[in-house]
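Researcher: I need the complex structure. Ligand is (2R)-3-sulfolactic acid. Inputs:
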Amino acid sequence: MKIDLIISADDIKDKVIKDKNVVVIDMLRATSVIVTALNNGCNKVIPLLTVEEALELSKDNRDNYVLGGERRALKIEGFDASNSPLEYKRELMENKSLIITTTNGTRAINGCKEAKNIYIGAMINAKAVAKKLLAQGEDVVFVNAGTYGEFSMDDFICAGYMIHCLLENNYAELTDIAFTAKYVYENNKDILGFIKNARHYNVIKSLGLEEDLAYCIQKDIIDIVPEFKAGEINVN
Ligand code: 3SL
Ligand code: MG
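Model: Output:
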């Protein structure tokens, strides 16, 4: 197994992900939201690029959908929920489909269409993702959403944790950047101590959303591995 890593949605190259297993990570906060919603009874998640597409898709069947996401980290006008994973409780999500549009996360997911399998990962389901990848035994590319096309410390350490889990009892060939992500995690197992220096962490904190941060940095509290296929994210 070979493991590689892409640092932001702007850096996705079709030739790197083509026919590979990819894991898209936006731990602050889009992929944490998606994992949480599906774990709380959501039927499926549809990740879209624009607010207009989301409103258009939901308009004829509004009661079936929860509209969620953010622009500049805040709730979008006319939407039901922001991009806070804590809002995606069973009471809101049970038997509903989530349409979500976010700045980086949904862009990264939609940018991976050339991949063979596209899994959705966050710190909260990291071990489950690693287990699934190991069972498949194929090459993996971690795709970090990053922030506005730039490297994000939070997604990087999350990928590092998954790579650490993958290599616990196994061998894999790592690119330099995949090795560095693992190294960063192994030297910063207290996630908070590392990502409190991240720019996006501090944006979320400045909005008073410390509870989101505390939630998203938890390891392995959810056991599902959502998969994006044909425009929808489901749990198989
Ligand atoms: O960019 C994204 O996809 C979001 O997850 C960013 S935020 O944490 O909701 O601001
Ligand atoms: Mg992010």
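Model: Summary of the prediction. The chain has eleven helices and ten strands.
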